Amino acid sequence: MPAETHSHAGPLRPDDVSRLVCERLAELLALDEDDVTLDARLREDLDMDDYTLLDLVETIEADLGEREIGLHLEDDELQELVTVRDAIDCVLARLDPKASG
């Protein structure tokens, strides 16, 4: 079931995106949500592989895609993501391109 972000029409806040990314990571990795901290390293601490990272991106795109037309994360960008915070910042930058520059 899609995240609560579909239940309201206002713009997504950074806290909404952060919560969504952490929830999806916990689901994909079968972890307790408390284990998914902003500074946790995706590969080393959470034991993510490239396939799971792609699943995360597809899940986030599906969750937010209906609200945020054009949200798309490039595969080559995924290699640069080290921490959960990096993943959240990457999504936020795609939602608001002005924020990255």
Spell out the key features of this protein.
101 residues, mainly alpha, disordered N terminus
What does this protein look like?
The protein is mostly helical and 101 residues long. The chain has helices at 14-29, 50-65, 75-78, 84-95. Helix 1 packs across helix 2 and helix 1 crosses helix 4 (84-95). The chain has one domain (12-100): Non-ribosomal Peptide Synthetase Peptidyl Carrier Protein, Chain A (Orthogonal Bundle).
Summed up:
By secondary structure, the chain is an all-alpha fold. The protein contains four helices and no strands. Helix 1 packs across helix 2 and helix 1 packs across helix 4.
Structural class per helix/strand content?
mainly alpha
H-E order? HHHH
Do you know the CATH topology? Answer: Non-ribosomal Peptide Synthetase Peptidyl Carrier Protein, Chain A
Give the helix proportion (percent range). 40-55%
Termini distance? 34 Å
- How many separate structural domains? 1
Gyration radius (Cα, Å) is 13 Å
What is the average of the pLDDT values?
Answer: 80
Q: Based on the structure, what is the oligomeric state of the protein chains?
A: single chain
The geometry reads as globular
Query: What is the CATH homologous superfamily assignment?
Result: ACP-like
Query: Briefly, what CATH class?
Result: Mainly Alpha
Based on the structure given, which CATH architecture is correct? Orthogonal Bundle
Number of DSSP strand runs: 0
Q: Spans of 5+ residues with little confidence (pLDDT < 50)?
A: 1-9
Taking the sheet with the most strands, its summary is: none
